[in-house]
Automatic annotation (TrEMBL):
Pathway(s) annotated for this protein in UniProt: Amino-acid biosynthesis
GO cellular component terms listed in the entry, alphabetical order: cytoplasm
InterPro entries: Preph_deHydtase
Domain Prephenate dehydratase positions: 12-228
Protein name: Prephenate dehydratase
Single biological process term from Gene Ontology: L-phenylalanine biosynthetic process
Keywords: Amino-acid biosynthesis, Aromatic amino acid biosynthesis, Lyase, Phenylalanine biosynthesis
Molecular-function GO term, any one: prephenate dehydratase activity
């Protein structure tokens, strides 16, 4: 018999980190008391992983029998999330979906303060930065899904990023934000991520160059909360 049902025993939820990912926001929405979690007062422990594949695979570990994983499954603009699809298709044990959650996803174009200052010097640029200023951005980092969800914006507003190596896939939107926050290469770099990475001070020195840059206003990502079905349940 299972002893791992949420509500019956302490359990862990794996999600795609670092702080500021959309996955993190969904996890906090599902487990709001986690915010003030004093370990003893909550039955839930949220565990960040670096990639969606690692997040998903963590439910297969024999040492993690009380483990759920929160996975982005599909997006209304850009379709299926590849890493999740590959995991579900290749999992050696059946995977059960416990809950489905939808999140309206609004991406922001983030830059670090140095880049922001340089963009402000471009003719006609002020707050918010003008279209003319955005055209000097050379590279944009994000998760493959976010780059896909903003493709038309990038094509029309950041033409330099259409060149080879101009759009760089990394394992999450928040990782992209943290990378550009630290970037001192002198290249004009940006990230597509949630504006909270800048506005809630999650990564220091980030500025919102433009908010709401997803191609569609009705952009929604569906997440699933899953677990590996145990012996005896199969
Ligand atoms: O990178 C993140 O912030 C995630 O949570 C991943 C992810 C995804 O894989 O679809 C989740 C929601 C958005 O669609 C963009 C990225």
């Amino acid at each position: 018999m299972s002893t791992t049902r949420p509500g019956q025993a302490a359990f862990e939820v794996a999600y795609l980190g670092p702080p500021g990912t959309y996955s993190h926001q969904v996890a906090l929405g599902l487990y709001p008391d986690y915010r003030d979690n004093q370990a003893s007062s909550s039955k839930v422990t949220l565990i960040p992983y670096d990639t969606i594949t690692q997040t998903a695979a963590s439910i297969l570990s024999a040492s993690a029998p009380r483990r759920l994983a929160l996975l982005p499954l599909k997006n209304s603009t850009h379709g299926i999330v590849k890493e999740t699809e590959e995991f579900l298709a290749s999992s050696p044990v059946p995977v059960e979906t416990i809950k489905t959650v939808e999140l309206a996803v609004r991406h922001a174009l983030l830059v670090n303060s140095k880049t922001y200052e340089r963009l402000q010097q471009v003719k006609d640029s002020d707050r918010p930065l003008s279209d003319e200023a955005l055209k000097s951005i050379e590279k944009v980092y994000s998760h493959e899904q976010a780059l896909g969800q903003c493709r038309h914006f990038l094509d029309s507003h950041l033409p330099l990023t259409s060149s080879q190596d101009g759009r760089i896939n990394v394992s999450s939107t928040a990782l992209a934000a943290s990378m550009i926050a630290k970037d001192d290469s002198g290249t004009m770099v940006a990230a597509l991520a949630s504006d909270i990475c800048a506005t809630k001070g999650i990564y220091e020195g980030l500025k919102v160059a433009r908010a709401g840059v997803q191609d569609r206003d009705d952009n929604v990502t569906t997440f699933i909360l899953v677990r590996a079905r145990e012996e005896g349940q199969r």
